[in-house]
Design goal:
The protein is an alpha+beta fold and about 140 residues long. The protein has one domain (about 5-130). The chain has helices spanning about 5-20, 60-70; strands spanning about 35-40, 50-55, 80, 90, 95-100, 105-110, 115-125. Strand 1 and strand 2 form a beta hairpin. The longest helix is centred in the first third of the chain and has 15 residues, at about 5-20.
Amino acid sequence: MHNPLNVVLVWYLLMATSCTTDVPPEAYLDFSAPLSLIIQTNNVETVFTQRQTETLEVNSKKWTQLMEWAKRHRAGWTSTPASYAGDIYVTQGKFRLTHSIGSEGVVIAFVDTEGNGQQYQKSIPKGELDFLYAE
């Protein structure tokens, strides 16, 4: 016979880890403002990190692609308290997107309208954000 406490614990863990939420881009992006793109790569010869910064002006190709990406990815986000580091950072005000080149994950963090910090992660197809650094 199963211990009822174990069954409840397993059910709770499954629910806590599988709950996803919608995060509308309007909650964290200003569709009338530019974005800042930071790409960090490691130089194999010097072992130093190289940092490249670019402003994505409103209606530029990358700005438009990212805004469209955000609109397509409003569902399926999972809240996460963990800290993340990446190669790609996109920022705007109190919003930050973090992604690692070649990975299948993305993290967004922002301060909501009530002043609370929010952070969500999501699995995405590998290469889906390549437009940010490929050219």
